[in-house]
Amino acid sequence: MLISKGKSFIVGAPIKENPSFKIHWGWVVLGSCFITLFINYSIRIGAYSVLLPEMVKDLHLNMTQAGMIRAAYFLTYILFSPLMGWLMDRFGGRFVISSFCLFLGAGTILMGFSSNLLTGILYHGVVGIGAAAIWTPVAALIQKWFGAKRRGLALGILSPSYALGFGLMGIVLPIIVKNYNWRWGWYILGIAGILLVGMNFLFLRDDPVKVGLLPWGETSRVDMVSSTNEESVKSIKILRRSPFWVISISYFLISVGVYIVSDFLVTYGVMELRLPYPTASTFISIMALTSIMGGFILMTVSDFLGRIKTLIFTQLLLMGSILLIIFARENIGWLRLGVGCFGFFYGPIFPLYAACARDYFEKEVAGTVIGLFTIFYGVGAMLGPILGGYLSDITQTFRWSYGLGAFSALISTIVISALIKPLPFGKRD
Fold first, then answer.
1. pLDDT in tens for each of the 429 residues of the chain?
2. Distances (CA, A) of 19 to 26, 28, 207, 211, 212
3. For residue 60, what are the contacts with CB-CB under 8 A and spacing of at least 6?
4. Burial (Cβ within 10 Å: 0-12, 13-18, ≥19) of residue 163
5. Can you state the angle between helices 117-131 and 48-59, rounded to 10 degrees?
6. What is the Cα–Cα distance from 427 to 241, expressed in whole angstroms?
């Protein structure tokens, strides 16, 4: 292999590119991933959160049942996420992401045909299968295309994608509901999900080395090589490493807290605070707008401050923002401020945990590690809406549910504080 001016030239694998084309292909991959996450989170958070009040009324559901539909999504998400990490490490993100976007789109279209609790659970479970192939492979793929000093920047740029996705739904979906009904919101987003199949097949590439490039931000092949070889990586006992369990448990706890708040945010405004549906729907847009800023700013800061210190700071203030939402009650000004703060500190949470995979584990197993992390994230995201919905049903208020969310964020912060500094590769076992 020869290296020249930031590029690697592999014998038998010549670079097929126009010399006048100056954009590193990592940015093309990032752009395709950006659009994929935009659509995915429009479905994952925006559609569910905004359309839920209308679905609850039309299908005659209580809050516990609404949480069960959400739980079906995360159950399949949990079951398939480890498989996606494994497929990512062996067959590449291009195949995994492109193929499973079909499940994402088809399941979303089917959600528009839901007629009762059972069909809602079944169809949302199909959506979860497709969504399992989005975040884990995308996060691992981006970390292959961007160097160690640029991963926070790349993931920070990527983070507005999901914020824009569910934020725009807070504006668009109420218009669709007003002129048609909630079912058309699912239909339209489902078609967009299916279109992702072709886009990702055309633009995604699995590894910069395979196309004769270095990750963007790296200047030599030496920068990419860890102190362990591929053979030793295969024998790593990931589950025996204490950082894996600390990160995973913290990830579980913060997921419980975040999804209790975000999934019921519009429903809280409409059904408890008695706000008009269009007004309550703007909470999702406010959360999205501030999460864009928070994701970019705090992910970039994490490159210098460190992932764990940034997580501690972020999650403590996230807890404070949930408490502000609780005590604001019907005061719309304070309520919007609380939602805005929640969004700002929500934005970098998931990219920060994904970046921990490369801070504590070798690149050869990054996809697998993120997939394993996602099991804990998914369990938390599954339990959060069920617990939140159940507490709301028995207390007739979301205040206790949101209080549980704040407490979960606090415990998550205490757990993750056990890891302040990444361990050197040679001392991990």
1. 333 334 443 433 443 443 444 677 778 888 888 999 999 989 987 788 889 888 988 999 988 898 899 889 989 988 887 787 678 777 778 888 998 999 999 999 999 999 999 999 999 999 999 998 887 788 778 877 777 666 667 777 776 777 788 778 888 998 998 899 999 999 999 999 999 999 998 888 877 777 667 776 666 554 444 434 443 444 356 777 788 899 999 999 999 999 999 888 888 988 889 898 888 888 888 988 898 888 778 888 887 888 888 999 999 999 999 999 999 988 899 999 999 999 999 888 887 887 787 777 766 676 678 778 878 888 898 888 889 989 998 998 999 999 999 999 999 999 999 887 655 444 444
2. 16, 16, 20, 14, 13
3. none
4. buried
5. 160
6. 10
Length of the chain: 429
Contacts of 222 (CB under 8 A, 6+ apart): none
Dist. CA 218–CA 288, nearest whole Å: 32
Count, in order, helices (H) and strands (E) of the chain.
17, 2
Q: Specify whether the backbone of 92 is left (phi greater than 0), alpha (psi in -120 to 50) or beta.
A: left
In angstroms, the CA 38 to CA 200 distance is 13
Nearest alpha carbon to residue 385 among 259, 281, 247: 259
- Alpha helices, DSSP H, located in 273-331: 277-305, 307-328
Q: Which two structure tokens, joined as six digits, stand for 56?
A: 């609850």
Dihedral, CA of residue 82, residue 87, residue 90 and residue 94, to nearest 10 = -130
pTM over 0.85: no
